[in-house]
Design goal:
Largest sheet: 9 strands, mixed
Order of helices and strands: HHEEEHEHHEHEEHEEEHEEHEEH
Radius of gyration: 22 Å
Bound molecules: glyoxylic acid, manganese (II) ion
Mean pLDDT: 97
Strand content: 15-25%
Length: 407
Amino acid sequence: MRFGTELLRQSDVLAQFTEDAPRVTRTYLSKEHKQAGEYLIDLMRCAGMNADFDALGNIVGRYEAAVSKAPIVMTGSHQDSVRNAGKYDGLFGIITAIACVKDLHDRGVRLPYTLEVVGFGDEEGVRFGATLIGSKAMAGKFDPAWLDKADDAGVTMRQALAAFGGDPDRWRDIDRRGKNVVAYVESHIEQGPVLLNEGLPVGVVTAIAGASRLNVRVTGLAGHAGTVPMGARQDALTAASEMVLEVERHCETHAGLVGTVGKMSVLPGAVNVIPQDVAFTIDVRSGDDALRRAAIAAIRTGCTTIAQRRRVRVDLADLFTADAAPCDPALQNAFAQAIAAHGIPVRHLPSGAGHDAMEFPAVAPTAMLFVRCGNNGISHHPDETMTAEDAEVATSVLLHFFENFRP
Ligand code: GLV
Ligand code: MN
Ligand code: MN
């Protein structure tokens, strides 16, 4: 096997750069981000690239074109992970691209464009609440207010960046708009069961679903669990629970929506005290932006009504919004041709998960290749799997794309 066995070995090495072994958790600007980045930079340099961290901690490798002033094609994915993650979400898109470049370099092949491979520092948004930090910065959407966001330990992004060796004040430098980038392509594990159920190793993404995230705070009144009569309570947690079910009800009754409450905290947090302060997140996604916006409006109204009836206060703050991102038809076609050239039926499918690629239409035409996810398609979970055979095929398809793409 040319690529697959080695890529799975690299994935195992990268999984060791984790904040909570034996689980895999690697957040933005952590010590483990630095270690994974140094490993990837080493792989990039061995593949004939100039490589380093940029001002925001993204890992960037350049494989120079045959001629000077050539256009640029970008590829890659994210180095960070959710808590207790799998080994392939994000990282596969970086190492498969490096493997392609290494193959070109070993054969002495230069492309008619410079190929830039990026390991984005943050896509998952676990540490600072801001999401897709690296790709948004490259798409000119970095918000400098994020630099003052603090993690759970009170460390701001600005402090963490300085400690990492980055430069918080140089975020403008990494904007790629107007820099002769002619395409962005990303390979990513599907994180769902569609390709698995159809017996296909790879597929072409048609569009990436849009997402809205809210931070919700519910404020009630703490009191003695034994003395306050049931009808006299202002229980922030029972109110929040109804709001969680409101999110589920709305998304269940409107086809094309998914909604999740994935994080909640309860204070004071004692067995014998009525909850006073509850904070939780809402994540709503759809391929249809109008449907998603209407859902957020309805959920806001629903939560406000619940709060009034239960005599608690609710504050709903926007945390993140991204519109659905259609993939470029010509690039989809180029991926379809690369797949067909391998004798594999071409399957087009949408992405319900978010990806760095969703920010790139602001920079250049964008497309994605999906790779089969084993184990019923489970992801954001340690049981996420990819076979060496699928890593092999996906890398060969990506290489075919790179060798045949003409800007
Ligand atoms: C990223 O993994 C997301 O879709 O939340
Ligand atoms: Mn993910
Ligand atoms: Mn991902």
